[in-house]
Design a protein that fits this description.
Elements (H helix, E strand, L loop, with lengths): L1 E5 L3 H13 L4 E5 L3 H12 L10 E4 L9 E4 L15 H18 L4 E4 L4 H12 L6 E3 L3 H15 L6 E2 L2 E2 L7 E2 L5 E2 L2 E2 H7 L6 H12 L1 H9 L4 H15 L4 E12 L2 E13 L2 E5 L6 H22 L2
Length: 311
C-alpha cells in the first residue's frame, strides 16, 4: 500500500522513518514544496531500509500520491517557544486549503491523518475542506499524550508500560484531560495496583505526572525547538492500525456531532481504528471532575474553531 507524507520537516521525516522501522506500507512518497529537502529526507531514510524493512522511500509531487491508501499531512509552521498550539491556528489553516485540494484530486479514496498543530482544529479544518466523512480524517490527537501518561505511570509503578491502560482525552494541548479514575494495571484498578506494589498514588505524584504529560511539549520545544520522534511514532501506529485493519482502540481526534453538550467539535476520545478509518467511539468512564474538564476542553476547541470559521 502506498503511503504519502505531505511535509518533509522533522515530523514528516520522523513519521516516514517510524513507518520504515515498523514495516508499515509497501511504498512511501514524501512531498514538500522544498523539493531538495524532501529528496534529502527520502534518501536518508532509504538508507535505513537494509537494517529495517525494505520499503521504497522516494520524494515526489502531489501527482505521485495517486492511489495512496493513507496521506499524512504534516506540513505547517512549527510551534514557537512560549506559543500555544492554538496560536498556530491562523498560520497553519491558510496552508491547508492548497494541500487538501491537491491530495483529494489525486487520492480521493485516501484516509487522511492530520499531524499539524493545533491538531484538533486542523482536523476539523481538514474535514470541512475535504468533504470526507469524519472517520476518514483522523487527527493524531492525544495518541502521544496517552503514551506519555502510560509511560510515567509505568515508571512510578515499576511495571511495563504495555501493562498500563490509561488514556488522555480532549484537546491535544493545555486543556487535555488525564483519565485517572478509569486507569488500570493488568486488569486491576490503578489505586489497588499501586497500593499492592507499595507505590501509592498521592496528590504529589498526580501533580508530577500531570505536569510531565501536559508540559512535555513545552519542555522539548524549549530544549530543541520542536517535537518529532514521539509524534512520528504515533503517526506510524495509526497508519499500521488502518492498513492491518486491527480495530485497535486509540485516543485520536475526529469531528464529533456533540461532546458533553458542545456541538461540532474535533477532539480525542477512545476510537476503534481499522481499514475504513474510525468506525466507532467508546465513551470513556468519567468521574464528575473529568466530565467537567472534558466539557471545558471541548469549549476551548469550539471557540478556536469558531475563530477559524469566522475569518
Amino acid at each position: 500500500m502506498l503511503l504519502g507524507i505531505v511535509g518533509a520537516g522533522n515530523v514528516g521525516a520522523a513519521a516516514a522513518f517510524a513507518l520504515v522501522m515498523r514495516g508499515v506500507g509497501s511504498r512511501i512518497v514524501i512531498v514538500d514544496k522544498a523539493e531538495a529537502l524532501a529528496e534529502a529526507q527520502a534518501e536518508d531514510i532509504l538508507h535505513a531500509t537494509p537494517v529495517a524493512h525494505p520499503i521504497p522511500v522516494t520524494a515526489g509531487r502531489f501527482a505521485d500520491l495517486a492511489g495512496a491508501a493513507i496521506v499524512v499531512i504534516a506540513a505547517g509552521a512549527n510551534q514557537k517557544p512560549g506559543e500555544t498550539r492554538l496560536q498556530l491556528l491562523d498560520r497553519n489553516a491558510a496552508i491547508f486549503g492548497e494541500i487538501v485540494s491537491a491530495v483529494r484530486a489525486v487520492a480521493p479514496d485516501a484516509i487522511l491523518i492530520v499531524a499539524t498543530n493545533p491538531v484538533d482544529v486542523m482536523t476539523l479544518v481538514t474535514t470541512r475542506l475535504s468533504g470526507l466523512p469524519p472517520g476518514r480524517v483522523i487527527g493524531t490527537g492525544t495518541v502521544l499524550d496517552t503514551a506519555r501518561f502510560r509511560a510515567l505511570l509505568a515508571q512510578h509503578l515499576g511495571v511495563s508500560s504495555q501493562s498500563v491502560h490509561a488514556g488522555v482525552v480532549g484537546e491535544h494541548g493545555d486543556s487535555e484531560v488525564l483519565l485517572w479514575s478509569s486507569a488500570t494495571v493488568g486488569g486491576t484498578s490503578l489505586a489497588e495496583a499501586a497500593a499492592g506494589l507499595g507505590r501509592p498514588i498521592d496528590g504529589r505524584l498526580r501533580e508530577a505526572v500531570d505536569a510531565g504529560v501536559r508540559g512535555a511539549a513545552g519542555r522539548i520545544i524549549a530544549g530543541k525547538g520542536a517535537t518529532w520522534f514521539g509524534i512520528g511514532a504515533g503517526i506510524a501506529r495509526i497508519a499500521e492500525t488502518i492498513l492491518d485493519d486491527e480495530k485497535a482502540v486509540l485516543t485520536c481526534s475526529i469531528v464529533e456531532d456533540t461532546v458533553e453538550g458542545v456541538a461540532d467539535v474535533a477532539l480525542s476520545l477512545p476510537r476503534i481504528v481499522g481499514a475504513g478509518g474510525v468506525s466507532a467511539t467508546l465513551p470513556p468512564a468519567l468521574d464528575a471532575d473529568e466530565r467537567s474538564a472534558l466539557r471545558r476542553s471541548a469549549e476551548v476547541l469550539k471557540a478556536a474553531a469558531g475563530r477559524w470559521a469566522g475569518r
